[in-house]
C-alpha cells in the first residue's frame, strides 16, 4: 500500500498519458492502457468530453469499467482524470526474454 501512495503522489503532478475520446472504450485504448500498466504499473487516463456522449456513462462508471476489464485497481478519480494501478506480472517478462 505504501508503494501505491508513493506512485499516486508522483502521478498527481504529471499529465495524463492516455486520453479516451470519441472512439470511447475501444479495444485499442484498452490494449494501450494494458501495455502501459505492464511497463509502469500505474497509468493516468483523461476522459475527453466526446467520450461521455459515446459511452453514455459518467466518469466513475468509465473508470471502474477500465479497472475491471484490465484487472487493475482504481486508485483515484479526480475530475475527468483517473489513475489505475496493477502489479506487474513477473512471469510475462521471463517468457518474453526466453522467446527472443
Structural features, described:
- Strand 1 (18-20), helix 2 and strand 2 form a beta-alpha-beta unit.
- Strands 1-2-4-3 form a 4-stranded mixed β-sheet, with helices on both faces.
- It has a single domain (2-99), classed as Translation Initiation Factor IF3, CATH 3.30.110.
- The longest helix has 14 residues, at 27-40.
- The model has no long low-confidence stretch (mean pLDDT 84).
- It contains 5 helices and 4 strands.
- The protein has 100 residues and is an alpha+beta fold.
SSE blueprint:
Elements: H1 2-12, E1 18-20, H2 27-40, E2 42-47, H3 49-55, H4 59-69, E3 73-78, E4 81-85, H5 90-99
Parallel strand pairs: 1-2
Antiparallel strand pairs: 2-4, 3-4
According to CATH, the fold-level topology is: Translation Initiation Factor IF3
Q: Main beta sheet: strand number and arrangement? A: 4 strands, mixed
Shape: globular
CATH superfamily: YhbY-like
Indicate the proportion of strand residues.
Answer: 15-25%
Roughly what is the average pLDDT, rounded to an integer?
A: 84
The first-level CATH class is given as: Alpha Beta
**Tally of domains:** 1
Number of E-state strands: 4
Low-confidence stretches: none
SSE pattern, N- to C-terminal: HEHEHHEEH
Q: Give the strand order, joined by hyphens, for the main sheet.
A: 1-2-4-3
CATH architecture: 2-Layer Sandwich
- Structural class call reads alpha+beta
Give the terminus-to-terminus CA distance: 34 Å
Radius of gyration: 14 Å
- DSSP helix fraction: 40-55%
Count up the helices: 5
Brief synopsis:
This protein is of the alpha+beta class. The chain has five helices and four strands; from the N terminus they run αβαβααββα. 19% of the residues are buried.
